[in-house]
Amino acid sequence: MNYLKKIGKSLLISFITILVFMFLFTLLEYIGWISNNTFKIIMTIINIIAFLISGLVFGKKSSKKGWLEGIKLSLIEILILIIINFSLATTSSKNIILYLIIFLSTTVGSIIGVNKNTNIK
Length: 121
Known about the structure:
Blueprint: H1 2-31, H2 36-61, H3 66-88, H4 94-120
Helix pairs in contact: 1-2, 2-3, 2-4, 3-4
């Protein structure tokens, strides 16, 4: 049960971060302060940072094998996004690149988190 709490907290952090920044930058795009292309680039960067942070938080709570914990968390996040995309009927081939970015950033974040955790002890 404790493991599920760690996963839930990491998922919540990443999705709340994405939602908050998505709302903010969508508002800026609607007002006309940023263009559509800039919005897409910013959202990709926000996704990378949010999933990196979720991997970092999850890695800090793990004791070893950050790469394995990161892979597990990233696969859960990707599965959630695939379910959301299928339910909204917004699937495209560009999503594969986004899933690869999510996979890499979460795994790297978890590796960094485990290494920070062991250095503190």
